[in-house]
Amino acid sequence: MLDLGRTFLQSVERSPHALALVDGEFRVTYEEWHRVILNAVHGLHELGLGHGDRLLAVLQNRWEMATLHWACQFAGVVMVPLNWRAKPDELDYCVTNAGVKAIVYEPVSADAVMQSPAAQNVPRVGLDDAPGRTATIDSLLAPARGATVTPAADAGDCSLILYTSGTTGKAKGVPRRHRHERAAALAHVAQNLYRHGERTLGVMPLYHTMGVRSLLSMALVDGLFVCVRRWNARLALDSIAQYKLTCLYLVPTLYHDLLADPAFDHMDTTSVTKLGFAGAPMSDGLLKRLATAFEPELFVNHYGSSEVYTFSIDQHATLKPGSAGRAGINTRLRVVKLDARSPDEVAAVHEEGQIVADLLGDEAFEGYWNRPDANAKSLRDGWYFTGDTGYFDADGDLYVTGRVDDMIISGGENISPVDIESVLSLHPCVDEVAVAGVKDERWGQRVVAFVKRRDYVDCETLDAWCRASDLVNFKRPREYVFVDDIPKSPVGKILRRKLQAGEFQRDERGAIGRTGPIQQHQHIEITKE
């Protein structure tokens, strides 16, 4: 298999004059970008980085970040991208855990770099006059002597280490080889039916597997990657119209923001023919709104992770809302019993269990970076235990119901938040909804629905809506809390722990406006039937 450096050379050789990268006024073809990448390779060598060394990049989705990613692939250097919002202790941990040899950062991430003791021991390349730097990005990208650079990596070398965000404990480093990354990018192209010359929005962060996949897949099809440094729905809409973007790959939150922007109805989005989403479940209501707004020829629900890029794919997301489809082309999946210790303890059809993936798949990682404790928890008998819950239906389609840790146990019943969210999302007055279990003396946990309203609605109306649905009685929320926003991670995952802890702002329309513990005035008494 080709390494990623030679993969990029394919695009340079096939389509040297095709527009490859845009970031504001910065626009380069594949031939022009290749020259910039080779300059960066030379700069990395001058900085003292060689084959197998790690480079930490704490940057937004800017052209320099995309360029450094590719430069690392040519140089055999391991890219370690980190959330530019990282706190000093998080950055310090990753610098130490990954054993990085240099850091590239910008003013927005400068405080974390300067407050990290470990960061002070390595060269620090700053962009835009970032304080605390020992070198500038101009010196790193200075024109290099020599005509060509032969890629220094092969398919078995490590390409990057992605640090998973995690909800508890330290982040886990996920090392991925060139062959893992190329296989995942090829699968992304195939599963999203990308054609030669596709154009996409580079908004998913390049420290996240979705962002990296968009970057690599565009190179595979000689396509265009339009950088979006910080999410702005209006800017995204402008980019779609200006560059005639053809495919979007976003988390549901960002799709929600696109539709909510007042300019959406006046912008030309007809060039977009393919929609893909991942990172979190999409509500039935948002699925329907997107299908109406874009009328895409392909609407893909992609379910995966940093560890195994593709678990499953549903290329017809609107036909069976909530279905994650079937295993991707490089993957084998099972659902095992919730308390299973072995991948052979397979759950029955419609029985909710934990989703596991075969580690022999071409996209699968081989274990966490310097974390034997994490390996012992998640890797068993050649299978990756995802920590996600779900079940297969009678047709063989997978339904992802949440995280093992998110499962609500109320009155001895296992209750998935996703089932309830799907029902409530279809109410015309509901903009967004998240369901979580909150401690209850009687039930152990009670089901609470946190609702962001599009138009005014009260808890009695929503309870009646649930009663009229096929939602079984014990799953109906016993309490509704109306909030201004649903807390989410930087990549759009619902942070249920914040809801459970009372870390939200109430919507004051018809309710007491305050931040804090859940109030009982919206409690609905439900008995088990």
Automatic annotation (TrEMBL):
The keyword Ligase applies. It comes from the Bacteria. Keywords: Ligase. GO terms for molecular function: medium-chain fatty acid-CoA ligase activity. GO terms for biological process: fatty acid metabolic process. SUPFAM superfamilies: Acetyl-CoA synthetase-like. Residues 510-529 are annotated as: Disordered. Residues 420-493 form the AMP-binding enzyme C-terminal domain. Pfam families: AMP-binding, AMP-binding_C. This is AMP-binding protein. Residues 10-369 form the AMP-dependent synthetase/ligase domain. PROSITE patterns: AMP_BINDING (PS00455). Belongs to the ATP-dependent AMP-binding enzyme family. InterPro entries: AMP-bd_C (IPR025110), AMP-bd_C_sf (IPR045851), AMP-binding_CS (IPR020845), AMP-dep_synth/lig_dom (IPR000873), ANL_N_sf (IPR042099).
